[in-house]
Design brief:
Structural class: alpha+beta
CATH topology of the largest domain: Uridine Diphospho-n-acetylenolpyruvylglucosamine Reductase, domain 2
CATH architecture of the largest domain: 2-Layer Sandwich
Number of domains: 4
Bound molecules: flavin-adenine dinucleotide
Helix content: 25-40%
Radius of gyration: 23 Å
Number of helices: 16
């Protein structure tokens, strides 16, 4: 079960900066948590070189880098000299034809294929638990076409999020998809995990932005849909790839909706006595068909953490709103939102929103907490309005009851007329004698069990990966059988990201 390999690097990212440093002496050895796969023989390596003359690595340091994504518990393991699992090779394709050839080869020899975008996934989705070949999509990063009349962009899926948004802005557009991981994630990863950006209440999640898709399926065939706004030609089978976390094929191109760059922005903030009061104000705004781009409600604990110098918000829940678009519409939205919020909220001005805008890409918890033995994670879930406040309180209570828990807080950051996404943060120190992983899973259990019990969804936008597999079948019920059949039909040799998403019968 334990494989050994030479040491390498650890990568932390804070905002858009990647720090690479070698934490231990070069003599140190690592063990792996998952088995990984068997070595590729020379014949296969030779064939891989024919397909990727300039895009193949079997180097130890590359294998270590691609042994994990941004799954927090894997970062902890790394500090304990353990890797999740090693791949046997990494390839960097530049065309769908190369990917198709690779997939044919993988089917012939039963080699796992793991698509890899930015490696910012936080669920372990890109970890090669059965070994195999990691397909890093970063060289497939071309913007194929920006279509002004249709308001679409056609783009290869290896593109880095910030590069895509920056280029669109340069041409006078926005995608409206700004996840906190904008600088370190790719379009392919967003599509495979159903990502959500900070401006989602107006522009939607990534799945709402897709017009057409191109993908290489698990049998090497290439599918492509038409760039039309809607069609009535049966189920949109290509959309099975959205949220598929790499188990059905590799998404190679997408045509997405874009918007003219907003001409006006308006920021508002209000402090509410309770989470209930803030949620109710937002629910009423959306019922009036007004969709601010950014809507975020912080509970008392997070308000204190992020807005400690806003006196009006002391001991309260902060709501921040950002409206953007055409000037007249923004002004109207401001009026409606302000009127509703003023009923029970205390106005706090624009400053807290500007503060959020300035700090919204700061991520330092993993580099600060983990080396100090502090285990933390963030967990997003979604719930209908009806039981949203109750669920928020019951999850916080459940988290606080986990032994060793120090932090249990949340904000709500994605809203719909039908409900809301809560984003919980937990952190603590495992009690003496308890393994880090056991503490970690107890905290996850606390949140997931409440979701299942209250018919909420266990994930809003991070996906399933390794962490959430434990609870997925419970949420999906009979639908898991359907997913299994789809997987077996499209990928009979189970080469695409094996061990993910489909829950085996226990
Ligand atoms: C600091 C930080 C902040 C974050 N903020 C957000 C946020 O605001 N919103 C949000 O939604 N998420 C967020 N995330 C999580 C993460 O960024 C998203 O899950 C993102 O969608 C992953 O993209 P990626 O390119 O890094 O994918 P990876 O981690 O490389 O891969 C994720 C999964 O997608 C599959 N995959 C990748 N590319 C393809 C492809 N072309 N075809 C098929 N499958 C593919 C992989 O096999 C894997 O299963 C954050 C993560 C971090 C570390």
């Amino acid at each position: 079960m334990q494989t050994e390999c030479s040491p390498a690097f650890i990568i932390f990212h804070s905002s858009n900066i990647f720090y690479i440093h070698i934490p231990f002496s070069l003599e140190m050895r690592y063990s792996t948590i998952y088995e990984g796969g068997k070595a590729l023989d020379e014949k296969i390596i030779k064939k891989l070189l024919e397909i990727f003359p300039d895009g193949l690595s079997t180097k130890e340091e590359d294998k270590i880098i691609y042994s994990r994504d941004y799954w927090p518990i894997a970062l902890r393991w790394f500090l304990d000299k353990k890797l999740p699992a090693l791949p046997q090779a990494i390839v960097w394709p530049e065309s769908k034809e190369q990917i198709a050839s690779l997939i044919h080869l993988a089917n012939e020899h039963g080699i796992p294929i793991i698509p890899y975008g930015g490696g910012s996934g936080v669920m372990g989705g890109a970890v090669p638990i059965h070994g195999g070949i990691v397909v890093d999509m970063k060289r497939m990063d071309k913007i194929v076409e920006v279509e002004d009349e249709n308001l679409t962009v056609r783009v290869q899926t290896g593109i880095n999020g910030m590069n895509l948004e920056r280029k669109l802005n340069h041409h006078g557009y926005t995608l409206g998809h700004i996840p906190q991981s904008l600088y370190c994630s790719s379009l392919g990863g967003w599509l495979a995990c159903k990502a959500a950006g900070q401006f989602s209440t107006k522009y939607g999640k990534i799945e709402d932005m897709v017009v057409a898709l191109q993908a290489v399926l698990a049998d090497g065939s290439v599918i492509e849909s038409r760039e039309v706004p809607r069609s009535s030609t049966g189920p949109e089978v290509e959309k099975l790839l959205i949220g598929s976390e790499g188990i059905l094929g590799i998404i190679t191109e997408a045509t997405l909706k874009i918007w003219p760059y907003p001409e006006k922005r308006k920021c508002l903030s209000f402090a509410f006595e309770s989470m209930e009061g803030a949620l109710e104000a937002v629910r009423k705004i959306l019922r009036r068909n007004v969709y601010p781009a950014v809507v975020r409600i912080y509970d008392e604990e997070e308000t204190l953490r992020h807005f400690y110098d806003v006196q009006e918000a002391e001991g309260k829940c902060m709501l921040i709103l950002l409206m953007e678009g055409v000037e007249e519409v923004v002004e109207l939205e401001r009026k409606v939102a302000e009127k509703i919020c003023k009923i029970n909220g205390t106005p706090c001005g624009e400053k807290p929103v500007h503060h959020w805008l300035e700090t919204r890409f700061n991520v330092k918890e993993s580099s600060e907490f983990l080396p100090r033995g502090f285990i933390f994670d963030t967990v997003e879930i979604s719930a209908p309005w009806k039981n949203s406040a109750m669920l928020y309180h019951s999850i916080i209570k459940a988290l606080k009851s986990v032994k060793g828990m120090v932090i249990a807080s949340a904000h709500a950051s994605h809203f719909y007329p039908q409900g809301v996404c809560f984003y919980f943060t937990f952190g603590g120190i495992p009690p003496k004698g308890m393994e880090a992983y056991d503490f970690y899973i107890s905290a996850w259990d606390a949140i997931m069990d409440e979701c299942i019990k209250n018919k909420a969804s266990i994930s809003h936008h991070h996906g399933i990966g390794i962490t959430r597999k434990k609870w997925l079948a419970k949420e999906m019920g009979e639908r898991m059988k359907m997913l299994k059949k789809i997987k077996e039909a499209i990928d009979p040799n189970n080469i695409m990201n094996p061990g993910k998403l489909v829950v085996e019968d226990e």
